[in-house]
């Protein structure tokens, strides 16, 4: 961090979590998203302060109205519904990822904060540990 | 200061965009495995967001026949240079 950096949004700068999990994969097509959310839940269960950043197709994880797959595969919507129970309340989404997919915060099943690129930069650099899925 | 490691070819443009969002002013990007293809001049647009702070792993570039074809703006590091980069930057983040 240099002194001449412009002041970031108040929502991103002061937050230093124990763990930031970045989720870049959509639900159903692979197990990346499920594994990332699992890691977040396990860390939270051990008392760690955890936040989630959704980028790219990862924003589809938050879309309202998801269900099981055609063969009964569980999906991740039920897992995400558990986040609040585990005190994982800091959810950020890439604003550009939303825009590129024709989504707004109103399409999401959970309350999240949309971040522009410079805010994502600040968020990621403020964290001591980041895992990417 | 963060070292970003990327192993996907530029045909996965979404990951290049996501990485660029998280890329800070003092960060560095090291292209490994299939990301070496991003170091070709024809793929320069995929690296435009990283301000010239980009290196490519020579062993991976060599195995793909790319060593004589790389963009001038991308520095070439060998395995020892890779280790040195990980020692220089306090944190690393792998994008895959």
TrEMBL record, chain A:
<comment type="similarity">
    <text>Belongs to the DsrF/TusC family.</text>
</comment>
<dbReference type="InterPro" id="IPR003787">
    <property type="entry name" value="Sulphur_relay_DsrE/F-like"/>
</dbReference>
<dbReference type="InterPro" id="IPR017462">
    <property type="entry name" value="Sulphur_relay_TusC/DsrF"/>
</dbReference>
<dbReference type="Pfam" id="PF02635">
    <property type="entry name" value="DsrE"/>
</dbReference>
<protein>
    <submittedName>
        <fullName>Sulfurtransferase complex subunit TusC</fullName>
    </submittedName>
</protein>
<dbReference type="InterPro" id="IPR027396">
    <property type="entry name" value="DsrEFH-like"/>
</dbReference>
TrEMBL record, chain B:
<dbReference type="InterPro" id="IPR027396">
    <property type="entry name" value="DsrEFH-like"/>
</dbReference>
<dbReference type="Pfam" id="PF04077">
    <property type="entry name" value="DsrH"/>
</dbReference>
<protein>
    <submittedName>
        <fullName>Sulfurtransferase complex subunit TusB</fullName>
    </submittedName>
</protein>
<dbReference type="InterPro" id="IPR007215">
    <property type="entry name" value="Sulphur_relay_TusB/DsrH"/>
</dbReference>
């Amino acid at each position: 961090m240099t002194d001449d950096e412009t002041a970031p949004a108040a929502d991103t700068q002061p937050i230093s979590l124990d763990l930031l999990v970045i989720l870049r994969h959509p639900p159903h097509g692979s197990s990346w998203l499920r594994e990332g959310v699992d890691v977040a839940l396990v860390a939270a269960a051990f008392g760690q302060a955890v936040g989630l950043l959704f980028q790219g197709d990862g924003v589809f994880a938050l879309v309202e109205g998801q269900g099981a797959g055609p063969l009964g595969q569980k999906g991740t919507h039920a897992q995400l519904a558990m986040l609040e129970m585990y005190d994982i309340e800091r959810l950020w989404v890439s604003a550009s990822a939303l825009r590129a997919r024709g989504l707004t915060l109103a399409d999401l099943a959970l309350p999240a904060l949309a971040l522009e690129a410079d805010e994502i930069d600040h968020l990621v650099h403020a964290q001591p540990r980041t895992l990417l899925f | 200061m963060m070292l970003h490691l990327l192993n996907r070819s530029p045909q996965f443009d979404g990951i290049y965009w996501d990485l660029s969002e998280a890329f800070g002013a003092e960060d560095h990007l090291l292209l490994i495995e299939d990301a070496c293809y991003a170091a070709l001049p024809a793929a320069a647009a995929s690296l435009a967001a990283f301000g010239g702070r980009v290196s490519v792993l020579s062993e991976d570039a060599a195995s793909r026949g790319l060593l004589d074809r790389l963009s001038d703006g991308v520095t070439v590091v060998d395995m020892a240079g890779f280790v040195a980069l990980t020692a220089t930057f306090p944190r690393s983040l792998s994008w895959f």
